[in-house]
Amino acid sequence: MALKVKTAETKVVLVNLLICMVVFYTVYYVVLSVCFAVFKIKMLDGFAPFDFKTNPSWIDPYYLVLVISLEITFFICGLLFALVVEEWVWDYAVTVTIIHIIITSVVMSEFPLMLHWWLALGSGVISMICGGQILAYCLFKDNFIYPILDDF
Predict the structure, then answer these.
(1) Pick from 41, 37, 52: which is nearest to 119 by CA?
(2) For 39-142, where are the alpha helices, taking DSSP H only?
């Protein structure tokens, strides 16, 4: 059995993925800038979205900025992804997160093994998927794809 994939469908998926990646990092840097201003941190680090080496401390404003901006970014992006990809938010959310992990590993020259970073990332992905899927369902429920389970 051969796999048949139309070129147009692949192009649409790749364009949507590119749009989601641009949206993700744009939102991330905007939220980081706002958080840096609110917490009155002097210098915005361009590598902040990839920083998993900062020691976790709830009294360290830099660490708080990293965690808060990560969570806000993931939630907002889930809502924005719903507008771009409609009901496929979960798929693009997971893909963008995996690409972010790969970029983080390349930028920081090591694979992230910090438990606090993985917990923040995991909760962010869950909020991205849940928020985005709920918004997509509310906006596009008339053309939402429901699986047919009669054959099971």
Answers:
(1) 52
(2) 61-85, 89-108, 115-140
Can you tell me the mean pLDDT for 74-93? 92
Whose structure tokens read 């147009």? 8
Amino acid at 95: T
Nearest CA among 72, 73, 100, 90 for reference residue 137: 90
The 10 Å Cβ neighbour count of residue 109 is 6
Is residue 35 within 8 Å of residue 68, measured between CB atoms?
Answer: yes
Task: Summarize pLDDT for 106-120 with one digit per residue, the tens.
Answer: 999 999 988 999 999
Residues 6+ apart with CB under 8 A from 83: 139
Contact between 32 and 46 (Cβ < 8 Å)? no
